[in-house]
Design brief:
homodimer; two-stranded antiparallel sheet; 199 residues; globular
């Protein structure tokens, strides 16, 4: 049982941040694991095996009030979750800049584009313009897909031009690369990167 | 005057996170600006001018308790600052992965290596091993220096081998590249990257 400097006990269920993670736990592969957990484990595997250096960025938080109790660590007493202006994951692989976002849906027939906000798409465009490797890992329809940012832009623009607001399953099957789930690493997306960007 | 959803007022002086930033304000160039402020402004300039895509990572926070008031945003009621296992800044420039940390000292004669922790040095080694461009921006002695990670490793190992625990001013003058301070961008470190890595 974890106890914090103030002696309080860490109670995960009530205290989880209000991120996709909480939602994921119900859905992702029904293994009680979240997509984020699996990607973190995978990135740790890549790091230890010296395959790639890719980390999840911390959750952006707007800090409003901090207390500085004597003889103990600073305590954040009031803060709010902020929307990220970039993607969640970045790093380096084979000397190239890697940048991606991970999303999932419970939908059975399509992936809703409302999972992204304009800032993230704009960031992905900038990364692609500067020669980076940019993509989305999508957990949907009991599969995990790697969709290149360039493909995502096509569906995003179709939506902006009053087209459909989601990517149909058959469209994803055609335009994305399936990632095989394993034990370790759990989501071996580097294989997909190799075939999509290095071959 | 900023007011948050709860109507509370944002009072920067008491509420700044307990990072280097608070310290910096007393010292950095005596312009009331922090090194972090100037680097954020510089990165924003690079982004708008489409020169590079480099962002500061959010401050890592261990969230302990979150309230979910009805009809309003989730409020983090208890959280603690976490030590980062990576560096603060990364991104892409001229197709290459960029990764750096920014530090400053009030010391007059040397830069103390205790400004870094082993995790950060280890991360920098991994970045260099994978072909990334990795360095430290050091604000010291009324100058701003760009020191290549490879040079920092030398001083770090000297310290680990019971050598001195800091980098002397004359050593920094010899091994680092001076960054000229300007109005916009304020800290034009890309010029130093060009001369150190692309020429």
């Amino acid at each position: 049982m974890i106890r914090y400097p103030n002696g309080k006990q860490y109670v995960p269920s009530q205290t989880k941040p209000a991120t996709a993670k909480t939602k994921n736990e119900k859905s992702f592969s029904n293994r009680g694991m979240t997509l984020e957990d699996d990607l973190n484990e995978t990135n740790q595997y890549y790091l230890e095996k010296q395959i790639a250096v890719i980390h999840k960025k911390p959750t952006p938080v707007q800090i409003v009030q901090v207390d500085y109790p004597r003889r103990s660590a600073a305590v954040i007493k009031e803060a709010y979750f902020k929307q990220s202006s970039t993607t969640d994951y970045n790093g380096i692989y084979r000397g190239k800049y890697i940048d991606f976002e991970a999303k999932e849906t419970q939908n059975k027939t399509s992936f809703p584009l409302k999972n992204f906000h304009a800032h993230q798409i704009e960031h992905m465009r900038q990364v692609v313009d500067h020669g980076g490797i940019c993509f989305v890992i999508i957990s949907a329809f009991n599969e995990v897909y790697l969709l290149k940012a360039e493909q995502l832009f096509y569906f995003w623009e179709r939506c902006e031009n009053n087209g459909r607001k989601s990517i149909r399953k058959d469209e994803l099957d055609q335009s994305a690369c399936l990632i095989k789930l394993g034990y370790s690493p759990r989501i071996d997306y580097i294989k997909a990167i190799d075939s999509l960007y290095f071959s």
